[in-house]
Batch of 4 targets.
Target 1
Amino acid sequence: MSETIVTERRKKVLKGTVVSDKMEKTATVLVERTFQHPLYKRTVRKSKKYKIHDPNNECKIGDTVRLVECKPISKDKSWRLLEILERAV
């Protein structure tokens, strides 16, 4: 008898700033990362925008939020709001 071992994989958690909240139950978050260039050894900044699921429309532009990976909710959304770290002034 063979047993199937199901291991829950760790979900990615990112931190970013809300840049748009015009959609219903969706916010756009800008996530920046820094890394060292492999050849020139300079620090490089890269950014990427993610659409996140915000069921209660809590996010406002300028908020710092934490987002977590989830199963695809729509064509573009596969991240959801985990928590709001800091409110915009």
Note: Strands lie at 13-20, 26-36, 43-53, 64-69, 79-86.
Target 2
Amino acid sequence: MTVSPVKVQKDRVKPSPFARYKPLLAQLRTPTALAAIGVSVLLLLLPVLFHFDGKQHANWQQFLGRFHPLAVHLPIGFLVLLPLLEIAGRRRPALREAAGFVLTLAFLSSVGALTLGYLLAYGSGAQGATVVHHMWAGIALTIGVLLCLMARREWVAADVSRIYPLLLTVVLLLLIYTAHQGGSLTYGGNYLTQYLPAPLQRFAMSGQTKENDGSFYAKHIHPIFDANCLSCHGQSKVQGGLRLDSYAELMKGGKDGAVILAGKPTESLLLQRITLPADNKLFMPAEGHPPLSAEEIGWIRTWIAQGASPAAASMPGITFAETPKDPPITPVGDYSSLMAEIHQMQSAQGAKLMTVSSKPSDGLVLHTIDVASSFDEAQLKQFEKFAPYIVEVELGHTAVSDACFDTLAKFQNLRAIHLEATAVTGAGISKLAALPHLVYLNLSNTKLTKEAAAQLATMKNLQHVYLFDTPARPPAPVPVIAEPRLATGDKKE
């Protein structure tokens, strides 16, 4: 009897789930990887080694740091281009090689932008939540790009197929967040939310508090700070330890102490700084912002002299003329029968009639920007056929002269006339008084005479008149500022 041999089945050894990552783990032990880890540690220690203390440092740091807004666009461009090259590189190997070069440039430019940004913040003494968030996001982004640079080699070799795409996705998300924080520093934290639809805006602004809306401070003082100072002295960015985004923060002062001394305008540091010569190192507002107007400084001085109240509704010595309201908009006739001719005009070269909206009753606007240099009274007369439906004429920078007033007087539904940078002197401008709905007239940079400007005062419907850079030189617009009465002991500056 023969015995059949016993078949011995060897146990199959299952590969470790981490086997596919061995090349990457091996790469982490290379000198290049160790150097990358060292760079990452240094970046993470940067805020510890150079802590934001709110004090200004060397001028050279601020000088170099101000190149940060320019340099920051380089890594943004490279990182946005990178995924496009990687996708296209599936079919064209040359593009995949280019992607590796672009990734290297992205890392180098990220390091450069981060260095300049840190010099800017540290040198200028900037503080604030948004400054800190922007800094940490920039550090994380730079480290993320470095990790992509390391992981990409194995991804190209197809040994590890998922780590690099995942890291690149994280980097792109970090790029969006970092850019948003940087934009908030430049344009304000409400840059994206300012024009949100009403329901979304209420949700976005739900956690914010408002000052007493009816007070002189809320209506006239805080808007000055909001427009000129909060980019450096707001919640997002704080220089010199001073915040001006609320009354409480304003009165708290900064590193140099209180900036407002109620009843003592000449001793108030804030007023001293905004009245320094513009070339003085301590002049405010700084960083390229224009000086406050004499009117704005007058409001601040009077507000401080009268006690710097957060609730007072008015200030003795300052009066405001009531802002007149525009009359209700009168609908024009139905120009639907002329739409074929209007559409033909819009597609042709020359002056165009554009619809205000989809409702014919809202009227038409005459545009001449494409042919401004050659558009004159003769061409304006060709639009008399459409006069009952035209509510605005844009004649700025055209060749029209005073003769245009004869034609414009026939456009009975005109609400706005642009004549800036034309040759008009105002002779015959009184004919515009026949336009019952005219509320806007721009005559800036014309040869308008004082006599012609005086005739505008008889046009009761006009609410918005612009006469800048003309011989007429109109008086200062309202509000009218009276000389403030100074508190006892103060000297008039």
Note: The chain has 18 helices and eight strands.
Target 3
Amino acid sequence: MEDFIDKALEMGAEYCEINHSEVERTGIELSNKKVVDISDNKGLLYSARVLFNKGWGNAFSFSDDIDALIKEAIDNALPGNVKIEETKEVKRSFKFDVKKNPLDYGIEEKKDLIKGYFDDHKNSKIKNTSIHYSDAVKKHEFWNSFGSNLKLNDTVCSATVISYAQSNERMESYFDNLSEHGGLEILKGFESKVKACNKAVAEILNAKNAKGGKFNIVVDQGLAGVFAHEAVGHACEADIILSDNSVLKGMEGTKVGVDGLTIGDNGKLNNWGYCPYDSEGVIAQDTTLIEDGILKGFLHSRETAKVMGEEPTGNGRAQSLENRPIPRMTNTYIKPKDWHFDEMLEDVKNGYYLKDSYGGQVDTATGEFLFNAKEGFVIKNGIIAERVRGASMLGSILKTLNSIRAIGNDIQYHGGGACGKSGQYALTGEGSPHLLLDNITVGGAE
């Protein structure tokens, strides 16, 4: 590939990179043990991206005619004013070891495996349980004109369970998932998640509506991780900063959160957002966004790093070889401290314990956010009491960062979804310990 890159430079390209990707995917969906959908496909793609006449040109093809691909990329380049930050030559290979390679199992074997996860419950209120399984075995190789050559062999498996329960006019749903880099071995114990899902949805069906207001609350690792990702991570993506759409713009080096609060992003972590090098061939690193409450840095592609006079952080990610890299998170986390979960509960006389998220919305420009909790419980005199439904957490990024009274010692990482931005999706993970927050607005169904 080096000869093709040299030829691109001889043709006037200021920079060139070439990618080769192979992927084999399987998807199976079962509803009440009956097959709803099956997909099984293979993909092969080559791409070339050039910086020509200070503008980007991209081309991709199923063919390995790299010479034609580079010529097409140069022809596709539009004049611009793009500059990129150069990095040193890197030649490395990354391989994710698996114990049970999905390619060694046929569709029928996978179907039987998934059927075995269903819970033979006797609760008549549970109307449907569905499980969606997917796997992908990927090979990728990257070359660029800075002399880098990077290789990745990766395998991911995911299973999501969704349960529906109904009583009279009311219907409720609940979901859980298990998604990791690895083979079929990562699904060990998934049947316990299915049972817990059926149990939770039946309880939610009978739960009272949450009452809104101002409360001291404890949030679990899942919801706290979503807050780190949605409210802080997106606001720290450099293209959001440069487009004046982040409440954190101009605050680097200033206090934005409480003492002891550290938030970072790390693509090297073995979690759903694992990304050992980004789509521009920059090796992943542990990037500190907030340290001891002070805003320290942002997430960069090569292009945004050059504009802001900083170093690339390994966050220039593209959904596929057909898309352009933009600043994206990998594994965003809140660093643990020393509080125990029970100590946090003891500090709440009348409040809520909120767990995980059903999604929500964030306006990074104003800092306003709303997250719908997947589960909610009343806390009375330091004890978790009855379950409630329809609870949400809302507020502003800066105010919430300064409302954190305690940071737990029990960090957990979660993943399984894909984060959307600018029409592209990327696998991202979140990690956090429990948090105790003071005087937070809780939205309720009542």
Note: The mean pLDDT is 95.
Target 4
Amino acid sequence: MTVTTRFAPSPTGKLHVGNLRPALLNWLFTRNAGGQFILRIDDTDAERSTEENVDDIKRDLEWLGLGWDRYERQSERMERYNEAADQLRASGRLYACYETSTELNLKRKYQLQSGRPPVYDRAALKLTDAEIAAFEAEGRKPHWRFKLEQERVTWIDGIRGETNVDCASVSDPVLIREDGGFLYTMCSVCDDIDFGISDVIRGEDHVTNTATQIQIFDALGGRPTGFAHHSLLVDADGAGLSKRLGSLTLGSLREQGIEALTLLSYMARLGSSEPIEPRNSHAELIEGFDLSRFGRAPARFSPDELTILNGKVLHGMPFETVSGQLEEMGVDADVAPAFWALVSANINTMSDVPGWWAVVTGDFTPDIADEDAEFVADALARMDAAKPWDAETWGAITGALKADTGRKGKGLFMPLRKALTGRGYGPNMAELVPLLRR
């Protein structure tokens, strides 16, 4: 059987690292198996879905290099969903409910206060024709629930192993809203059946939903897919990321200078038994990908670790990969290869590059302490006399200064570095000096 997976984002917002986790795991799983990866836009929520978000989703995936083999939109499949709903009604598995949201909330509060789980009581199944007519005369529109078999559903999960959910403790899920709009639960099952989805990899917050969907598969005459539920992301302190996801959108990370391969290298192994290391290509990420190496413990996402990894990725990035970006930043083509070889080991993001180019061109503020002013002036005068500078200049000048002043070590080199770069750290000065244009 051909492995076929899907990534099914809802275009009601921007993609963030939480969305990327299932997208990437599905993509790697599929590419490793030589299968088909489907991008399915779950846009049944017409009020909140926007075309701008659809475009952003595509742009983010293209930036990451996560190409898809097939593209689908749920908004174009309403006829199919209506057919499925009619099939469930005919079999007695889809029933109309007339409670308002206020009434349902009161029921849940009463159940909780009574020490009972807030499970829907199926009161709608006991309504008489007269009661239904009275509700409709009031102008009430029904929402529709799927009638679960109150039994334990068991499956072998690709990450969690044997997993089961007792559906007697789960409310019958709403499949159709009062306004006639479809919810995700049934539409997803229809699509998975029709598109031949073999495996679904998603967050563990869907475990209960999976149990109800397995029953919907059966009710619609479909064969349930394989399921794997990965752990959710938490921050360094173990707290959920939900309140921080706005700053962790893929677009925001891209603007911060995080490289696509950095994000992929980090997310592809986060939460697994494999070390997180910089990868140079998608092929390296795909090779040896094994879903069974992922554990059930929450995966700790650290922006700081991501930035450090980004530096490692840049350190090994060939000049040809960044030449276009360097040109856009104003780096002169004649020195760009040497400049990149020198500064790439001293940056964490590409946004650090202009600052180092400013050092080369002299467009920065030197850092000279009062007590070092005379020493620095003497050193710069000697350097000026030694033009043009080459790989030997730095050693010759500092050697002479050491002999004449008695300075050595940090007391010799740091004042000169700060005067020539405005910083107390950076590339090897012997290699940097020949590039300086002061």
Note: The two ends are 66 Å apart (CA to CA).
